[in-house]
Specification:
Layout (H helix, E strand, L loop, with lengths): L2 H11 L3 E6 L5 E6 L2 H13 L23 E3 L2
Parallel strand pairs: 1-3
Antiparallel strand pairs: 1-2
């Protein structure tokens, strides 16, 4: 399973909204909204990555929710 789909599954399991997408520099951007406790668990889960995946660095930035997302999706 690719990293974006690993993130998608984790976000949907936690009932978060937002998106995950690859960036041109090879990094991945994730925007997620939901209850703080679920977001903290989500951040821990994605830091570990999928089975054989390698996560080198995770940077978390907390901001106010916008409420603009209805679901969690993979962006392109």
């Amino acid at each position: 399973m690719g990293f974006r789909y690993f993130v998608l599954r984790a976000a949907r399991t936690a009932e978060l909204t937002g998106f995950v997408k690859n960036l041109r520099d090879g990094s991945v951007e994730i925007v997620a909204e939901g209850p703080r406790e679920e977001l903290e668990r989500f951040a821990r889960d994605i830091s570990e990555g999928p089975g054989r995946g390698l996560v080198r660095d995770v940077q978390v930035k907390w901001t106010e929710s916008t409420g603009e997302f209805e679901s969690f999706d993979v962006g392109f």
